[in-house]
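step: validate -> pass
step: tokenize input -> pass
step: predict -> running
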Amino acid sequence: MTRRTWNRRDYCRCTAVQNWDYDEAAKKLRCFRRWLEDNISRLPHQKIGGSVAFCDCELALIQAICSVMPPGVLPMSDDSGQEQQEESPVSELAHIRPAGARKRRSVG
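step: predict -> pass
step: emit ->
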């Protein structure tokens, strides 16, 4: 049996990786830069030195993580009558919620 070496970027399918910074990623995702900064520990990203970068595959994963699927939208299976649910690599991250309000710092 051969042992497979795990690559941290197995999810990436980019043929030519284009990295985006916080501002560019927020613009592409149509969200606030601050939201990305506040949730970076729970989002797929690259950390190069002290800089954070996102490729298009990581932005697609973030969109999948934040997608909301109301009940009854998924197609019904023909044989069992139950909703089909496929396990996705981001399903365990679906519980991510924005951080709560922060305490204001006193300006002194």
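step: describe -> Helices lie at 22-29, 33-39, 56-65.
step: cleanup -> pass
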